[in-house]
Amino acid sequence: MDSDAMRVDGNAMAGVLGEVFVQEMTAAQIACEGCGKVEPVGAEHAYVQAPGIVMRCCHCDSALLVVVQTGETYRFGLGRAKWLEFAERA
Ligand SMILES: [Zn+2]
Prior knowledge:
Elements (H helix, E strand, L loop, with lengths): L2 H4 E3 L4 H8 L7 E4 L5 E3 L4 E3 L5 E4 L6 E8 L2 E5 L3 E5 L5
Antiparallel strand pairs: 1-4, 2-3, 2-8, 4-5, 5-6, 6-7
The structure holds zinc ion.
């Protein structure tokens, strides 16, 4: 299976990010350190068949975020995400 067939959009990460950050994450903005572009989380590429979930930049393919869940613990790696911005839940 090639990488395009394994990729879904970043909305696939919304559930796990919402559990970690307790905010609505699909509209959160994320900045790529690789190319400098800023996109909503939902627009990035997510690979969910890895041992964790990997979000890659939809422009330059840099690994932005990695989330691994083991039991009730989450390990969250920032990768090449420069920043993540989201609004407080109303
Ligand atoms: Zn990029």
